[in-house]
Amino acid sequence: MAVAAPPITQLNKDEILRYSRHLILPEVGMEGQLKLKNAKVLMVGAGGLGAPLGLYLAASGVGRVGIVDFDVVDYTNLQRQVIHGTKDVGRKKLDSAADSMLDINPYMQVDKFDTAITSENALEIIKDYDMVVDGTDNFPTRYLINDACVLLGKPNVYGSIFRFEGQATIFAYPGGPCYRCLYPEPPPPGLVPSCAEGGVLGILPGTIGLIQATEAVKLILGIGESLVGRLLLYDALAMRFRELKLRRNPECPVCGDNPSIHELIDYHQFCGVPNPAEVAPVAEQQAGYMSDTEIDAVALKARLDRGDKFQFIDVREPNEYQIASIPGAKLIPLGDVPKRVGELDPNQEVIVHCKMGGRSAKACDFLRQSGFKNVKNMLGGITAWSDKIDPSVPKY
Amino acid sequence: MAKVLIPTPLRQFADKHDSVDLTGTTVAEVLASLTQKFPDLRKQLFNDEGKMRSFVNVYLNDDDIRYLQKDATPVASGDTLSIVPSIAGGV
Lengths: 396, 91
Known about the structure:
The complex is a heterodimer. Chain A has helices spanning 13-18, 20-23, 29-38, 50-60, 93-104, 122-126, 139-152, 179-182, 195-198, 204-221, 267-271, 297-306, 318-323, 337-340, 358-369, 381-388, and strands at 40-44, 64-68, 109-113, 131-134, 156-162, 165-171, 230-235, 240-245, 294-295, 311-314, 330-331, 350-353, 375-378.
């Protein structure tokens, strides 16, 4: 990165007009607007939380926003990721988000990082910014961003969502608590479903992302009472906000009094999940793949066509089954598998599928532990079936 | 009677309840009543040694019990216990 530019000390005439509603607020004024103009915020993820964050940070006049994202816009994003439009499907989220932001506010700089944030690049990327707004969607990245922010002394404006509920706070503010103070360890893989598997109310990331944007702008302006030391909980169904006290844990391994973590670690290992960079995507495996424990869509189709005898189970929820199903699969939702296991013959082969392969893997583990001798997980679930076998099966 | 608030990810293990009123004079007693009522919750909240899992926090009103008297924290009638698990969604 280039040497830090000298601070901007005045706004041009167009900017003064643009920011007039800020400029007449005594709490912001010209001084505050110049703070925003000189601020540098790194947004990790241009998805559900990143969408409102990016739009409003741009509109508010934050002078420089970095975006880290390697994903491409798809149709399932449009229900909530309002920074992207239908015309952007297939484009990089980075480009689509930057275009939307620069359309709202051409008087800003957008830095694009077309990469996943990793232990290797996080410190280098984050160090040039004043703070991070975390809009990621998985535990390894959450812990990575936390530790990097603590090590660099940069606040991490945090938000996370699940179905109808959200959490927001500020971690790693000097002297304040960090993510590890709140949750020393992540849940075991698979216990908490992702939004792709668990679903999310489309508006929810809007609400939580805007709380993050509000906190980021307040930190820049140095006004109000920040969420440092408070965990804000939001329940959209009850339409209720609650707040809980957060404390820095003096024994925290990263921000405590005697920290044991002084550099970034392997966060996939810490969270017990495979590193996506090291796992060959299903698409790259040879079509027709089958092992003792796994089968892909092509091999499954061939076996169904041959009339092979096996028990074929769909462990998704009934509402998902209504959207799309694979002919011949019997619906036993994952949560019902233990009590309906008697419907299956443990001595005969079982093939299990779900939407993407996560829940079916859990069902396979359960069946094996229950004494089933021949259990196979269908790789990629009904999504792979739609991609590889029958495009008329809707994806969701 | 204390009110226990059950978060969305755990409601599937609690007959879909979002809150339940339970008796108990300490956090441990209230949680024991909870897992007695909903045995499926036990595995979610506690490890095999019976210790609270470290990605689940329990708050008495707005205070983290880790900074009170942990399991032994007294619970009065009208108190609210919140179970707050870690969530990571964002896209």
